[in-house]
Design a protein that fits this description.
15% of the residues lie in helices and 50% in strands. It is mainly beta and 436 residues long. The protein has four domains: 114 residues, Immunoglobulin-like (Sandwich); 122 residues, Immunoglobulins (Immunoglobulin-like), CATH 2.60.40; 111 residues, Immunoglobulin-like (Sandwich); 33 residues. It has a five-stranded mixed sheet with strand order 20-27-26-22-24. A four-stranded antiparallel sheet has the order 1-2-6-4, with no helix packed on it.
Length: 436
C-alpha cells in the first residue's frame, strides 16, 4: 500500500514538473508569480529610418529581456522576414545571445539588430516581421511574435523640374502655353497633386489689405490644375493656357506657385515656389534716311530709327561706315540710347557725296538691347539718290548747284564788272575832252 502511495506521489511530481517546464515557454512571468523560473521576451526598440523607404534599407532593433528569476541559457533569436523585407545574401537570421540572467531588464537587456532591405514594390503602411526564440539550441521554438515596421516616404519630394512657355518671350496681348514639369524624387508614389498659379497676390499692410494682380489671365478660366498620381522617378507636365494684357510692359514677372499633394500614408504636403515669365517681343527697328535725295557735295543726313515693335529698345549705338562716293565729315559714331515702342529717334551725320552714280549706299551698323537685356547687333544698307542741278530744280530739291553753273555765273559777273568799268572810264575821258 505504501509502495502504491509513493509511486502515485512520484507520478504527480513528474506531471507537475512537465507542466512547469512547458509553462515557461508560453506563459509570461506576471502570470507565474508563484514559479521560480525565467521568461524571455523581445521588445521592439525602434526602426531607422522611420518610415522605411521602398528600395532602401531599414535597421530594426529589439531588446531581449528576462523578466523571470532564473537565468536562461542557450538563448537564440531568429528573425522571420516577410515581404517586403529581406536579408542580404549571407546575412544570418539567427542571433545567439547565450545566457540571459534573471531580472536582466531595462538598460541591462540585450539588444539585437537586423539590417533589412525594403522591396521597391512595398505597400505603404505597416508591414509585418516575426521574431521567435529558442532556449535549447533551436530544438524547440516559442511561437513567433509579430511586429510592425512602417513603410512610407521619408520625405515626399515633388520638384518643379522645368518651366517653359511658348512663344518665348510671351508677347503682350497674345496667348501662350505655360508648361510646368513636375518630378517625383521620392521612392514612393505621390497622389492628388494640385498646382495653382497665384495670379493675385495679397499684400498685408500695417492698416489694410491690398491686392496685386499680375498681368496674366487663364484662357480656360482656371488657374489650378490637378494630377491624380506621380510614380517614383516619374515626370509629368502641367499645362496652362495664358494671355497677357495688350498694354503689358515688357519685363520679367515673378509668379507664385502653390503645389499641394499627398503621400500614400495620407500625409499632406504644401510647397510654395516662384517661377518667372518673360514678357516681350522682338524689337523691330526700321531705318530711313532723311533726306534720301541729295546733290553732290556736303550734306547733313539723319538716320531715322523707328521702333515698330512691342518692346522698348535700350542702349542703341549707331556707327556709319564710309563707302565709294561717301566720305564722313563728322564723327562716324552716334549714341542714341532709349527708343520707346511706337516711337523714333534720329542719328545725324555730316557727309560729303562725290559720285557719278545715281544711287549710293549708306552702310549703318548698330547695336542695342531689348527690355529683357537681350543684345542685338545688326547691319543694314540704305540708299541715297544723287541728283544734278537740273534734276534738283525739276524735283524741287533746294540747295543744289552744279559745278559748271557756278563757274559761268562767276564769269558773267566778272564780264559785267569789266563792262561797267569800261563805260565809266570812257565817260570820264569824254568829259575831260569836252572841258578842253
Amino acid at each position: 500500500m505504501k509502495k502504491e502511495i509513493i509511486t502515485g506521489i512520484l507520478a504527480l511530481m513528474i506531471v507537475f514538473s512537465a507542466c512547469s517546464t512547458s509553462a515557461y515557454v508560453h506563459i509570461e512571468a506576471r502570470d507565474r508569480d508563484t514559479f521560480d523560473m525565467y521568461a524571455v521576451e523581445g521588445y521592439f526598440v525602434n526602426q531607422q529610418p522611420d518610415p522605411a523607404e521602398p528600395g532602401r534599407y531599414v535597421e530594426v532593433k529589439w531588446k531581449i529581456e528576462n523578466t523571470g528569476t532564473e537565468m536562461a541559457e542557450n538563448v537564440i533569436v531568429e528573425l522571420i522576414p516577410k515581404f517586403p523585407f529581406s536579408l542580404d545574401p549571407g546575412e544570418s537570421a539567427l542571433r545567439r545571445i547565450g545566457s540571459v540572467w534573471g531580472r536582466q531588464i531595462g538598460d541591462r537587456g540585450v539588444v539585437v539588430s537586423y539590417r533589412l532591405r525594403v522591396d521597391e514594390n512595398a505597400v505603404m503602411g505597416d508591414n509585418e516581421v516575426e521574431l521567435r526564440y529558442s532556449f535549447d539550441e533551436g530544438k524547440t521554438w516559442i511561437s513567433p511574435r509579430r511586429y510592425l515596421i512602417r513603410v512610407g516616404m521619408h520625405d515626399a519630394i515633388l520638384n518643379v523640374n522645368n518651366v517653359a512657355y511658348s512663344p518665348s518671350p510671351m508677347p503682350p496681348g497674345e496667348k501662350g502655353v505655360l508648361n510646368i514639369e513636375l518630378e517625383n524624387f521620392a521612392s514612393s508614389p505621390i497622389k492628388d497633386v494640385r498646382v495653382k498659379l497665384e495670379l493675385i497676390t495679397v499684400l498685408q499692410g500695417a492698416a489694410s489689405v491690398s491686392y496685386e494682380e499680375l498681368p496674366f489671365f487663364p484662357l480656360d478660366g482656371s488657374s489650378q490644375k490637378a494630377v491624380r498620381n506621380i510614380m517614383p522617378g516619374e515626370k509629368k507636365i502641367v499645362s496652362f493656357s495664358l494671355a497677357s494684357g495688350q498694354d503689358t510692359s515688357a519685363g520679367i514677372y515673378k509668379v507664385p506657385l502653390t503645389i499641394e499633394y499627398t503621400d500614400y500614408l495620407g500625409n499632406s504636403y504644401s510647397r510654395n515656389e516662384i517661377i518667372s515669365i518673360i514678357v516681350g517681343g522682338e524689337p523691330v527697328l526700321e531705318l530711313i534716311a532723311e533726306p534720301s535725295k541729295v546733290c553732290s557735295g556736303a550734306v547733313t543726313i539723319g538716320i531715322n530709327f523707328m521702333n515698330k515693335g512691342t518692346t522698348d529698345v535700350r542702349f542703341l549705338d549707331v556707327r556709319l561706315k564710309e563707302s565709294d562716293g561717301i566720305k564722313i565729315v563728322s564723327s562716324d559714331n552716334v549714341y542714341i540710347g532709349h527708343v520707346y515702342s511706337d516711337d523714333y529717334e534720329i542719328a545725324d551725320f555730316r557727309i560729303f557725296v562725290e559720285s557719278d552714280e545715281k544711287r549710293v549706299p549708306l552702310t549703318v551698323e548698330y547695336s542695342y538691347m531689348d527690355a529683357n537685356n537681350r543684345r542685338y547687333e545688326e547691319e543694314k544698307i540704305i540708299y541715297l539718290d544723287v541728283y544734278d542741278a537740273k534734276e534738283a530744280a525739276r524735283y524741287g530739291i533746294a540747295g543744289c548747284r552744279s559745278g559748271s553753273g557756278g563757274t559761268w555765273t562767276v564769269v558773267v559777273i566778272i564780264a559785267l564788272g569789266l563792262a561797267v568799268y569800261y563805260l565809266w572810264k570812257r565817260k570820264k575821258a569824254k568829259e575831260k575832252h569836252h572841258h578842253h
